[in-house]
Design a protein that fits this description.
Rossmann fold, 4-stranded antiparallel β-sheet, transcription, two-component regulatory system
Length: 230
């Protein structure tokens, strides 16, 4: 049975007690967590780990949270990652500034941890649907992450665990070009060393399993960049 890697959440909070409370609750829900205590550290950790969602405090030492948000939303690889902004600023003008900078959500302090966890789940349902059990559909391909079954039209396909995770990654973001390094992180995990060319081998196996020799090949090779679905 294939294992779907847990969504990865980055917490950016300079108050250590708040940071650890958030980390505890996120890990209790099965997410992997990385931490940063300043804006500069947040940008470094993001580049190293490429999280699926960022919980970002506005008031940070050094680079502010609002500037971190602005920089992440400008980056080609980071602009699609949802950001939940945390702030003690309650004025409407502050909320508007947060959203205009690129925040996807805005939560004022003090906040309910239960409500924040619900907001995290809601954003991840949109960006990592397979990881939270939602059935994925692309053209005539259907993937059910809970039963680990894949169909193309009326035909059930037999995929190995790695090919299943690879297809799941593609189907969560149709049209997005994934580099080999991004696929290695998402499919194999960050703690395992695998040569990047291994990705090519498994993409080839996935294409074969999808019947690309007899039906239209849904996987697109982007020379010098990576692979995309559609």
């Amino acid at each position: 049975m294939a294992v779907q890697h847990a969504p990865h959440v980055m917490i950016v909070e300079d108050e250590s007690s708040q940071r650890e409370i958030l980390a505890y609750n996120l890990e209790a829900e099965g997410y992997s967590v990385s931490r940063a205590a300043s804006g500069d550290e947040a940008l470094e950790v993001f580049r190293a780990s490429t999280p699926d969602l960022v919980v970002l405090d506005w008031m940070l030492p050094g680079v502010s949270g609002i500037e971190v948000c602005r920089q992440l939303k400008r980056g080609a690889e980071s602009r699609e990652v949802p950001i939940i902004m945390l702030s003690a600023r309650t004025e409407e003008s502050d909320r508007v500034r947060g959203f205009e900078t690129g925040a996807d959500d805005y939560v004022t302090k003090p906040y309910s941890v239960a409500e924040l966890m619900a907001r995290v789940r809601a954003h991840l349902r949109r960006t990592r649907p397979a990881a939270v059990g939602q059935i994925l559909q692309f053209d005539d391909i259907t993937l059910d992450p809970e039963t680990h079954r894949v169909h193309r039209g009326d035909m059930e396909l037999k995929l190995g665990p790695t090919e299943f995770r690879l297809l799941s990654t593609f189907m969560e973001r149709p049209g997005r070009v994934f580099s080999r390094e991004q696929l290695l992180d998402r499919v194999w995990g960050r703690d395992i060393y695998v040569d990047s060319r291994t990705v090519d081998v498994h993409v080839g196996r996935l294409r074969k399993s999808l019947g690309a020799d007899a039906m239209p090949d849904p996987i697109r090779t982007v020379r010098g960049a990576g692979y995309a679905l559609g």
